[in-house]
UniProtKB/TrEMBL annotation:
UniProt KW Acyltransferase keyword: yes
Name of the protein in question: 3-Oxoacyl-(Acyl-carrier-protein (ACP)) synthase III domain-containing protein
InterPro entries membership: ACP_syn_III_C, Haem_Oase-like_multi-hlx, Thiolase-like
Pfam family, one: ACP_syn_III_C
Species whose genome carries this gene: Variovorax paradoxus (strain EPS)
GO terms for biological process, alphabetical: secondary metabolite biosynthetic process
Length: 653
């Protein structure tokens, strides 16, 4: 949930760009080619990123002209000068950067020292692109809580020192593409914002003030591998401190800045889904956004972001976008502050206008957002009521939603976008359950597999039963849907027997299916689905099928190679998992047809709400089932009367 602010205003903004602008044809004087591949890579990268000039804090000889702390101090001085403010007013300094000039102490303390500033509270945020937003949030929270009247947020980057040709001598001037291409992407610079309470006027904009309405940040580092890093070898197996010396670390490539560009499309995917959640929960209205400041590292990604927003029906018209990437370059954590500062210096604002900022961070996947609104100084301050709190939304594997909202049939885009948000939260939580962690960390053994199967078989057994109950509860207008569900249930009614056979081939010792027990999560899920199926026209069950079939078609195929690697069994011991990995794609297509039938009968709004609510409840209960899997369930003692299983069936549950 975003952090909402009622009393935080942006008083002034400044930036500092070292040296003169360096055009593309003069880059080699600062970032010298490494080998014959360099020129080709440089041409490709510059053709895509759209950067025409940038700034470096080193000279053509590679000698540092400004330290990173000096860049930050320069931005702070510019910010104060533009606002006619004194440094003595500032009692909190928050900095954001991927790295200062020293490994310790903290960067904010080094900036304070560079400024010879009075004693104050300091916070150093270490990160990558979103670190600047984190610094802004830290400063704003200090004001909102009443601990400070004025606070300074600053972000500064100086990657040029890492790109000097001499840095690659230990490797014979050879390096991998992931570190090679960044030399033509990143550059130096700093930005600063002075935040205050008391509704101050915005510097350079008489009669106006600029309110920070909220900041929202969410990291997905538990779901994805490292994308951009400094300090690990190319294979991420060793850190720079694990070597005997700095020279050894450098020779092994552990001191080279890298970005795995193959992962970047997923960064924008999670960012847009998070944005969709902000819209859904009332934090931002795309129609009210007058200015969209998006930190993209390359102009190549503009159509990617724009296309995702368009297909989710959440677009912001291109003419409202603003960026200075072309002439300021990509300055990492400083980019959004430099962008916002230059925007405010060059644009004429009007009361009521909103400025929406979006910063994706590739480090280990993070998304940050800010919303600011222009007010007239003679207007009464507006108190923002926070929207109703939504459920907390949100890998080495990237798990896509069962249906891509970008490919939605006409009229289903909004529904699939909201379902995708539920899916991303669900798969993210599933990925951190004890069972999945065992599998991912290669701690999954045969007893664990058998225990999972023992709890899963009785759950799968119920699948076609609640589907048939639901079909029987559908009234006349839904008879086509009832027939479709009956076909689906019929195809899956023997799934539990396939799974039980796999269990026996793997060495399972429980002889009778009736002796197996669902875990507490499975019991809760089973009760919920049977209860819903017994109600009149339970079309919400399509939301349950979305989660259940999606698990089989998306999550299981990602886990299966790891399970096979950990549990040495013959191929025919995995028939159920293999079957669902392939066949549930057909089931998902059938699901889409069923949704279109329901929409035609019920009306889009009401049908969509039932499907979404059921999907959310099913995801929570299925997650509970995953969480209990590692517990050992008791088996039914011998001699218990056996249930009639003739009509029992499957369903991936």
């Amino acid at each position: 949930m975003p952090v909402s602010f009622q009393r935080v205003y942006l008083e002034s903004a400044g930036y500092f760009m070292p040296g003169e602008p360096i055009p593309n044809d003069r880059m080699d004087a600062y970032i010298a080619p490494l080998n014959r591949m360099s020129e080709r890579i440089k041409r490709r990268i510059l053709a895509e990123n759209g950067i025409l000039t940038r700034h470096y804090a080193i000279d053509a000889e590679g000698v540092t002209q400004h330290t990173n702390a000096q860049l930050a101090a320069g931005a702070i001085r510019d910010c104060l000068q533009r606002g006619g403010a004194e440094l003595s007013r500032v009692s909190l300094l928050a900095s954001g950067s991927s790295g200062g000039d020293t490994l310790m102490p903290g960067f904010a303390n080094m900036i304070q020292g560079e400024l010879a500033a009075q004693p104050m509270e300091t916070h150093s945020v270490h990160g990558i692109c979103a670190a600047g937003v984190s610094a802004i949030q830290t400063a704003a929270q200090g004001i909102e809580l009443g601990a400070h009247r004025s606070a300074m947020a600053v972000a500064s980057e100086m990657p040029s020192r890492l790109f000097k040709r001499s840095r690659f001598a230990a490797r014979g001037y050879e390096t991998d593409f992931d570190s090679h291409f960044l030399r033509w992407m990143l550059s130096d610079g700093a930005g600063a914002l002075l935040l205050s309470d008391g509704s101050p006027a915005l510097a350079g904009a008489p009669g106006l003030r600029l309110k920070l309405k909220w900041v929202h940040q969410r990291a997905f580092s538990g779901d994805y591998p490292v994308c951009m890093q400094l300090g690990l070898t190319e294979d991420r197996a060793r850190g720079h401190l694990d070597f005997g010396s700095w020279a050894e670390a450098e020779a092994a490539g552990a001191l080279s800045l890298r970005q795995d560009i193959r992962l970047l499309p997923h960064l924008f995917d999670i960012g847009i889904h998070e944005y969709a959640g902000l819209v859904r929960d009332g934090w931002v209205d795309p129609k009210r956004v007058d200015h969209f400041l998006c930190h993209y590292s390359s102009e190549k990604f503009i159509p990617v972001v724009e296309d995702l927003m368009n297909k989710a029906d959440l677009s912001i018209p291109r003419e409202r976008w603003w960026s200075n990437l072309a002439w300021r370059g990509n300055t990492g954590a400083a980019s959004i502050l430099v962008m916002l500062a230059e925007f405010l210096h060059t644009k004429t604002l009007k009361p009521g206008e909103q400025i929406f900022c979006y910063v994706p961070e590739s480090g280990r996947f993070m998304a940050a957002y800010m919303l600011l609104e222009v007010e007239a100084t003679d207007a009464a301050p507006v108190t923002m009521a926070a929207p109703r709190a939504a459920a907390v939304p949100d890998d080495d594997f990237v798990i896509a939603p069962p249906h891509d909202p970008a490919a939605a049939p006409e009229g289903l885009g909004s529904l699939l976008t909201e379902l995708a948000a539920i899916w991303h939260d669900y798969r993210s939580r599933v990925w951190r359950t004890p069972l999945i962690r065992q599998i991912r960390e290669r701690r999954f053994a045969l007893p664990d597999y058998l225990n999972w199967m023992e709890q899963w078989v009785p759950q799968v057994r119920e699948g076609s039963k609640w589907m048939r109950e639901g079909a029987a509860s559908l009234s006349g207008p839904y008879q086509m849907l009832a027939s479709l569900i009956d076909v689906h249930a019929g195809e899956e009614q023997n799934d539990f027997n396939i799974l039980f056979s796999d269990y026996k081939k793997a060495g399972g010792t429980v002889a009778q299916i009736d002796d197996l027990r669902r875990n507490p999560g499975g019991e809760a899920l089973n009760a919920y689905l049977h209860g819903l199926a017994a109600t009149r026209d339970p079309i919400g069950l399509l939301g349950a099928i979305y989660i259940i079939e999606g698990t089989g078609q998306r999550i299981v195929p990602a886990l299966l190679p790891l399970i096979k690697a950990s549990v040495k069994l013959p191929p025919d011991a995995f028939r159920f998992l293999e079957y669902h990995g392939h066949n549930d794609e057909n089931h998902l297509n059938r699901w889409l047809a069923a949704v279109e039938m329901v929409m035609a009968v019920e009306g889009q709004a009401r049908a969509a709400r039932q499907i979404i609510d059921t999907a959310r409840h099913t995801a929570a209960l299925y997650l509970m089932q995953f969480q209990h899997i590692t517990e050992r369930m008791p088996h039914e003692p011998p001699g218990r009367p056996k249930a009639n299983t003739a009509a029992e069936g499957g369903g991936f549950l």
